[in-house]
């Protein structure tokens, strides 16, 4: 590869240096997985997205953490859509991304970007004392959604104050661990944080894919199909969630903070 265009975009952000940064890479031909993994390690962000055109308004999309390729990523998909529209001048009103997690659609809505993702309602699992100890919380409920674990606690302050043992978390059989509680501010229905040390992400600032599980959980608990969420990481970010049966719509903004070229 040589002179490959690359952008860094803050996703689920209202301005620069908020939300979750993703690298968006646009190689001029199909790269091999080893090269993509090395680029993602070099970027050292929670995800790097790789885009290749497939047809009018359609793109192949893959995501890599610094360690592994993943099946579903929300913020890097939002960053990819933003890059194609705002930086590359793509004219399509909607974008279809073909991914390992199935087809995903992005469309503009009221100055934000709407993502159409698969719902992943969590199923209850037996409370794991070792996981609770690693997190330093008293769970009200535990569940699994795909390859992620969900831990529900009573109060948002417990989520905000989390200081987990990341080495212990990494030993659990999961891509990541979501911890969530009811919102403590009137504008938010729930808060969460997401830790994924097993795949090279100590804490993800704002995790779109996690809301494919968080949305159905809180929608059922609160009896709502439209929710407003806040991921209470150090950077923080807001996500609007709409439940659409077997799909979830996630809405958020994005800002480009860097444009450059890879020379390797």
Short description:
With 264 residues, the chain is an alpha+beta fold. It has two domains: 4-118 and 251-262, Diaminopimelate Epimerase, Chain A, domain 1; 123-244, Roll (Diaminopimelate Epimerase, Chain A, domain 1), CATH 3.10.310.10. It has helices at 33-43, 74-87, 129-135, 156-160, 166-169, 211-222; strands at 4-11, 20-26, 48-55, 58-64, 69-70, 95-99, 102-109, 112-118, 123-124, 141-145, 148-152, 176-182, 190-196, 201-204, 226-231, 237-244, 247-252, 254-262.
Describe it.
By secondary structure, the chain is an alpha+beta fold. The protein folds into two domains: 4-118 and 251-262, Roll (Diaminopimelate Epimerase, Chain A, domain 1), CATH 3.10.310; 123-244, Diaminopimelate Epimerase, Chain A, domain 1 (Roll). It contains six helices and 18 strands. It has helices at 33-43, 74-87, 129-135, 156-160, 166-169, 211-222; strands at residues 4-11, 20-26, 48-55, 58-64, 69-70, 95-99, 102-109, 112-118, 123-124, 141-145, 148-152, 176-182, 190-196, 201-204, 226-231, 237-244, 247-252, 254-262. The protein has an 18-stranded mixed β-sheet that branches. The protein is globular. The protein starts with a strand and ends with a strand. The mean pLDDT is 96.
Question: Secondary-structure map with pairings?
Answer:
Layout: E1 4-11, E2 20-26, H1 33-43, E3 48-55, E4 58-64, E5 69-70, H2 74-87, E6 95-99, E7 102-109, E8 112-118, E9 123-124, H3 129-135, E10 141-145, E11 148-152, H4 156-160, H5 166-169, E12 176-182, E13 190-196, E14 201-204, H6 211-222, E15 226-231, E16 237-244, E17 247-252, E18 254-262
Parallel strand pairs: 2-3, 4-6, 11-12, 13-15
Antiparallel strand pairs: 1-2, 1-18, 3-4, 4-5, 6-7, 7-8, 8-17, 9-10, 10-11, 12-13, 13-14, 15-16, 16-17
């Amino acid at each position: 590869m040589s002179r490959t265009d690359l952008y860094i975009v803050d996703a689920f952000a209202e301005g620069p240096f908020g939300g979750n940064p993703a690298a968006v890479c646009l190689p001029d031909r199909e790269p091999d997985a080893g090269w993509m993994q090395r680029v993602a390690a070099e970027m050292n962000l929670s995800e790097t997205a790789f885009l290749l055109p497939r047809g009018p308004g359609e793109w192949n999309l893959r995501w890599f953490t610094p360690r592994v390729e993943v099946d579903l990523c929300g913020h890097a998909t939002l960053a990819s859509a933003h890059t194609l529209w705002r930086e590359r001048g793509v004219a399509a009103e909607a974008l279809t991304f073909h991914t390992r997690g199935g087809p995903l659609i992005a469309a503009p809505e009221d100055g934000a970007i709407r993502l159409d993702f698969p719902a992943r309602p969590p199923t209850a699992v037996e409370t794991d004392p070792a996981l609770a100890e690693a997190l330093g919380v008293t769970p009200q409920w535990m569940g699994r959604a795909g390859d992620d674990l969900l831990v529900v606690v009573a109060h948002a302050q417990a989520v905000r104050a989390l200081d987990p043992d990341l080495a212990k978390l990494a030993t659990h059989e999961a891509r990541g661990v979501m911890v969530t509680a009811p919102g403590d501010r009137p504008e938010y229905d729930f808060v969460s944080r997401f830790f994924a040390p097993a795949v090279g992400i100590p804490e993800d600032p704002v995790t779109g894919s996690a809301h494919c599980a968080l949305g159905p959980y809180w929608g059922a608990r609160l009896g709502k199909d439209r929710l407003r969420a806040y991921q209470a990481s150090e950077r923080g970010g807001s996500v609007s969630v709409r439940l659409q049966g077997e799909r979830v719509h996630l809405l958020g903004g994005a800002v480009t903070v860097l444009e450059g070229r890879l020379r390797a």
